[in-house]
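Is iron/sulfur cluster placement plausible here? Inputs below.
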Amino acid sequence: MKCTRCRAVAAVALPRHNAGFCPDCFQVFFTRQVEKAIKDNLLFSKEDKILTALSGGKDSLALSRELKLLGYDIAGLHVDLAIPESSVQAREHVLNFCKIFEIPVHILDMDKECLPIPEIKKRISRPVCSMCGRIKRYYFNRFALENGFTVLATGHNLDDETARLFSNVLRWDQSYLGDQGPVLEARQGFVRKVKPLYRLSEYETANYCFITGINYCYTPCPYSKGASFTYYKSILDDLEHEQPGRKISFYEGFLRRAKKYFAEREDGRDTNLKPCPRCSYPTSAEICGVCRIRAMLSAG
Amino acid sequence: MQILIEPENKVVFLTRAGNVDNLLRLLRLKPGQALVIRGSELLTPDRKVEPEDEIIIRKIVSRG
Ligand code: SF4
Ligand SMILES: [Zn+2]
Ligand SMILES: [Zn+2]
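Reply from A.M.:
I modeled the complex. Tokens:
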């Protein structure tokens, strides 16, 4: 197979684009997809102060490299979950990466915050992922707001986004469907959130990391069996294999033609948010979710 | 042909596979599910692989 742009030997075949690229042209392709996502959805500008959520995995590192090279003002935040089997490696990969690419990086330790994930895991019988996700969202959001960032960028890719959309559609979850997309506007107590990699698949970010020499962490989290959407991802992989381009057309079709019907219904839903009495994070409950987890842990 | 499968770091040997597409099929993977690496090179599904090749199959893992 030859590179679609320069006719050299292709390194990456992309059936959904009906194309193949050599390493250099693949990087051009990747950058264009990121630029298109930013431009089409007005994700941010050079004036924005961007915080990237750095897990140490391929997506967050690929995203940070791209934004840095495109000249955006970025810094990274890594939330260390204190999981013995994977957190040390994840943190090291983040620190090494940021050093190489000269990206300022901040670390928040969940041990120090009295929220180590393994301790939470011990106290609950269902998968810990939903609480872990809640804690991460809480700290990324809080850190961004408290430190003057105007946007939080995450490495969610096309596979993450289509799996989430598929799951939301199967449940016809109006509220989640109304919010789903590459940008979630800022609102009372919540920073603006964006997903610049939504046009790129997991496979494409993995190729990108190999080609650009990004050393990412692939030590799996020991609790990842409970991670959401794993099954939906495999169904969608089968579909994409049979019908290349299915994922992006499903997702973009939703954004263009369907999202508005769900988003309209959601106006005014935030009116019952008030600051948590313990930490002042916006919540619709008596006490916010993270303070409740903390209370559960201190109850022993 | 020696094949190292990551992230499990499992080594398997195959006598012949023909091309990458077929190699992936023997390992029950789809082309979009793993990088196929020979030395410093990425191989597309149409590329031929030889019995003396050492190949790394790097599965795309989602860490959640
Ligand atoms: S797999 Fe679950 S527990 Fe592990 S880091 Fe991801 S969300 Fe947290
Ligand atoms: Zn080329
Ligand atoms: Zn609180």
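Short version: The interface with chain B takes residues 1, 10-13, 15, 20, 23, 55, 57, 86, 129, 159-160, 201-203, 206-207, 210-211, 217-221, 224, 227-228, 230, 233, 237-238, 240-241 of chain A (CB under 8 Å).
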